[in-house]
Design goal:
Helix content: 40-55%
Structural class: mainly alpha
Strand content: 5-15%
Oligomer: single chain
Distance between the termini: 34 Å
Number of strands: 2
Largest sheet: 2 strands, parallel
CATH superfamily of one domain: Ribonuclease H-like superfamily/Ribonuclease H
Number of helices: 7
Shape: globular
Radius of gyration: 20 Å
Length: about 150
């Protein structure tokens, strides 16, 4: 979740509900680093109130949280491919990096995270029509989109 600076624990709890809980439900366990926002009493009480437990990775040893570190490395790799020269547009690229990551087959499961989460295959958007005298009308483009979505729903 892109944030300006480290969010305080109360803001972190709100972000958790807004961005994680609404899509995935309550996790049984959350493993985090030892940042102050994760060790704050408010955050610990919040996790207890929703029935989650917390695990902290070893200080100065981020490799303990290997899955998160691999996901972070992959996200950096995706963004590096597309970020502008000034490296100021990376936050805008996060949704695209997320789509790329969630639709790559992972060796540990043989499936994409999207398929695991939803039970469905990802349906990509068709290319937007080009602005030219021969481009398709919006109606034609919408019909193409419906046709593609229908193909994946069967």
């Amino acid at each position: 979740i892109a944030c300006k600076g480290l969010p305080p624990a109360k803001r972190l709890a709100k972000l958790f509900v807004k961005r994680i809980y609404r899509l995935h439900g309550v996790p049984r366990r959350i493993i985090s680093d030892r940042g102050v926002q994760f060790t704050a009493k408010f955050w610990r009480e919040f996790l207890k109130s929703i029935g989650s437990s917390q695990g902290l990775s070893s200080a100065f040893h981020p490799a303990c949280n290997g899955a998160a570190e691999r996901a972070n490395a992959m996200t950096e790799q995706y963004i590096r491919c597309y970020v502008n020269y000034q490296q100021e547009n990376w936050a805008e690229l996060l949704p695209f990096a997320e789509v790329a990551y969630n639709n790559a087959v992972h060796s540990s499961t043989g499936l994409t995270p999207f398929k695991i989460n939803t039970g469905m295959d990802y349906v990509p958007m068709p290319e937007l029509p080009k602005q030219s005298p021969t481009s398709m009308s919006l109606t034609e483009w919408m019909n193409l989109l419906k046709k593609r979505v229908g193909k994946y729903r069967k």
